[in-house]
Amino acid sequence: MTMATLLQGIAEDLRFIRSHSLQPQWYKTLKAFILLGFLLGYWTFFGLKRTAIFLLAFFLLSLGLHLLYRAGTHGWKRSWLDFVVAEQDGEIRPQRIGIFYYLAIVLNAALSVVASQLLA
Questions:
Q1: What integer pLDDT is reported at residue 14 of this predicted model?
Q2: Which residue pairs from 58-65 have beta carbons closer than 8 angstroms and sit at least 24 positions apart in sequence?
Q3: Residue 111 near residue 54, CB atoms below 8 Å
Q4: Residues 85/76, Cβ–Cβ less than 8 Å
Q5: If we measure between CA atoms, which residue out of 63, 66, 45 comes closest to residue 113?
Q6: Which of 10, 15, 46, 90 would suit a FRET pair with 70, their CA atoms being 20 to 30 Å apart?
């Protein structure tokens, strides 16, 4: 994989993340504040080292989940597991993402907490 291909893939994913309607825009914004608040609380209770380990583990696990869904959906163009796409007006558009994805996010967070507590 070349650097140009990697950058093109990242740009495609960023466009998808900003444009999809799988979640309302207010929720996309709220997620950032929820994560920030959680990290500040985690830092307060467990310190910088454990928070950094949590953040790194969560980022890597979530990146893995993202890449798994990206591959399974062929770049967000096909339905796969709980990710549903449909054709509307000649255009393929994502319709919903379901319970498997959200359970995986919760599992990622739980595994990240365990990793931060055991590795620090």
A1: 87
A2: 58/108, 58/109, 58/112, 61/108, 61/111, 61/112, 62/105, 62/108, 65/101, 65/104, 65/105, 65/108
A3: no
A4: yes
A5: 45
A6: 90
Angle between helices 99-119 and 25-72 (to 10 degrees): 90
Model pLDDT for residues 62-101, shown as the tens digit of each residue:
999 999 999 999 999 999 999 999 988 888 889 888 899 9
Mean pLDDT of the chain: 92
| Residue closest to 13 by CA, chosen among 59, 76, 62 | 76
Q: What one-character-per-residue DSSP string does 60-88 give?
A: HHHHHHHHHHHHHTTTTTS-BTTBEEEEE
DSSP state of 93: E
The model's confidence at residue 108, banded by pLDDT at 50, 70 and 90, is very high
pLDDT exceeds cutoff 80 at 1: no
